[in-house]
Amino acid sequence: MTTATRAYVSRLAGLTVFDPNGDRVGKVRDVVAALRVGTAAPRVLGLVVEVVARRRIFVPMGRVTGIDPSSVMLASGTINLKRFEQRAGETLVLGELLDRAVTIAESGRKATVVDAGMEQTRTGDWLLTRLAVQEPGRLGRRGQLHTLNWDEVLGLALSEEDQGTETLLATYRELNAADLAHALQELPIKRRHEVAEALDDERLADVLGELPEDEQITILGTLSESRAADVLEEMDPDDAADLLAELSNVDRDRLLELMEPDEAEPVRQLLAYSEDTAGGIMTSEPVILSPDATIAEALARVRDPELTPALASQVYVCRPPSATPTGRYLGLAHIQRLLREPPSSLVSGALDDLDPLTPEAPLAEVTRYFATYNLVAAPVVDQQGRLVGAVSVDDVLDHLLPDDWRDRARRG
Prior knowledge:
Layout: E1 6-8, H1 9-12, E2 16-18, E3 24-34, E4 43-50, E5 56-60, E6 64-68, E7 71-74, E8 90-92, H2 93-97, E9 101-104, E10 110-120, E11 126-134, E12 145-149, E13 153-154, H3 166-171, H4 177-186, H5 189-198, H6 201-208, H7 213-222, H8 225-234, H9 237-245, H10 249-258, H11 261-271, H12 278-281, E14 288-289, H13 295-301, E15 314-318, E16 329-334, H14 335-338, H15 363-373, E17 377-381, E18 387-392, H16 393-400, H17 405-411
Parallel strand pairs: 2-7, 14-15
Antiparallel strand pairs: 1-10, 2-3, 3-4, 3-8, 4-5, 6-7, 9-10, 9-13, 10-11, 11-12, 15-16, 17-18
Helix pairs in contact: 4-6, 6-8, 8-10, 9-11, 15-16
């Protein structure tokens, strides 16, 4: 392995960290540096490494023996698994330094930090010696990119004002919603809200669904009411209902009024049920087919990438209308069985006659139902025989676990 003595921080993000035995320790999530007075290059203190259970720990740079394009190697010794907590005077390079507005000393032009280069000195210390900065572009084009020495850039010693998010979001682009939610929680509060504001509605909706309820409420409260309504429309109806249930009646009603009527109606229906019943934890948007639908149509519907694996495991056959609450519920068909039937056959010929749940079924009954029939999703049918939704196993687990289970997972 060729060991680098220079590295750009954005390229370190996501690299796998190995111990001397070649065992995987975790992944690099950020770099910690100490800014200095004046124009002296900051000292790199260490790496923030994400290990098992999404715990983020601090690894001092003195433990790093090698950096290459695909991995980081550590020296032998015990790793401190204490959760990383940022101290006064420390700066997260990815989380806080990127997207900072600066001034190029020579020209006086404004620019934005898009990357930072660190270099190992003869004494073995690592310093942030280089900065990649980009000038504003015109007519939608990117401006000129400069790679400068640290002391050729002004403004980093000042508190950040109107900090952008483009570069930081680029480092998060490949993260799934759960990992991005976790990364968001590790940022300072001000930076967290800036990133949330910059995410598009769909991405933010996915991330909110992975955050603890108090974090959801805080972030939603930083958005304008119209933007908050747009984000709620992008959320799964059951997640949106859970979030709105935590708000005051006034705030809840105002946001529901701002939502599109066809998006708000399923959420209103879910809010009518107690949160510890099948109706309170179900989604109102399972895969619903008419009796004359073919197996080929069913298989095409469950290929939708927006469906969770649990909801894609079966389809529900009902008489029109096909939106919940539907016409009379006829039964469900498991995708595993449909895969063994001719594509031209009707789904209604492969139905399971399993009794559905009722909306009032308590959580304990729902849990027993899933365990008894080895299901990952189950239909919920009202007294009129109409399908009103489906409960998936992830919804059940979410309500069985303690309210702070996401925080516990983050803390390890």
